[in-house]
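Schema walk-through. Below, the input block comes first and the output block second. Nothing else is stored per chain. Lengths vary across the set, and this one has 438 residues.
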Amino acid sequence: MRRKIGRRGSRDPHRRNSRQIFTDAPVAQANRRHYWPNPYNNLMPPLLFSNGTILLADRAISGGCVGIAAERIDLVTEAPGSMAADRAIIDLAGGYLAPGFVDVHIHGGAGHDFMDGAEDAFRAVCQAHARHGTTSLLPTTTVARHDQHLAFLDVCRRLRHQDTGGARILGAHFYGPYFAKEARGCHPESAVRPPNLAEYEQYLGFDCITRATVAPELPGAEAFVGACRAHGIGCNVGHSYATFAQMEAARGWGVTHVDHLFCAMSDRARLRMEETYPMRGGVMEATLFFDDLTTEVIADGKHLARELLLLAFKFKGPDRLALVTDCNRALDMPDGLYLFGPKDGGEPILRRDNVGVMPDGKSLASGVLGMIECVQTFHRLTGAPLVEVIRMASLTPARIAGVEDELGCIAVGKRADLLVLDRELNVKQVYACGVRVV
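--- output ---
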């Protein structure tokens, strides 16, 4: 008997250790208020994907079929090839069908940075990352001047949910400039600053920010988080040397996520440099300790060694740990010197050995690889089940972005954002809203 697979009920099969699946309700509600148009010229006939392995959110089904009509998935079945009438067949050739990836921390690619503040730069980055399997993303700011952030947000608002020729823009990740100066990493020092009400009221007025990052030890951080939450914006901690106690307080304000685990954050050793005893926990320890905090890793094989990826996976599991690229403008570009952030005032960095580094070679400077490379690397280094690794690049970041009702897994009613992968996990075809973009 044919078995159809639709939406899951209220009991989520992905629960680990009886912990409730994370959902940032205000962010999800804010996204539901926005009309979701189909920006793609969707004149394609109904399609049927068959002759491969379907990677669902909780399991893989070999020999199943997935059908799409217009912009949505309308069929998921374990009966091979039985629903082909009036549908064009997409032969998976023994490979995989996976959900499109969602990247919640991404700066650029193909020679462009979102902070260039131009539509052609946004489109070029979205098209480049689509080639690496990303079908939805949050353009992410860097530390920059106020006028540069305004220009970024203006373009982001205009292109949100519009046809970019590649990945869909879900909204902005307002990442810099509210960092601890000592923890700024590769961001330019001159524009690092604490939250300023008159300034961020202008940012919030664009109504296109999905998530925002702040170092909670900064003056004005609590008020900034409160203002963001009032606008339905999810809040992150990043580039911070906060103590465990300050992280606990930030949770109370409404912070739910921590940027790039193990990178640009305090830990016991760093805080001991300021106070010899007693030894205190920092952002890293708090992130691992609090089950309700989600986090992310840059799984490019350069930022984090195998044991750190395993540690993150053991503590957080696939429902609280997302994969991100943190990619700069050097994606798909040759080794050499680039600018991180805007062309005017960005920080010089090098692309070398498939990672970004500072010119002196002594510290990292964001990523240069796409999401499929992160999926391949995490799967290879950790041995984690492929279904769970794919979920960390799709459904988990979709939840963090508040769009899990629309995106993130292969299920009836979801947007038809799909990837055709070969057995080596190389991207062969990419579909956004049922339209092939790669």
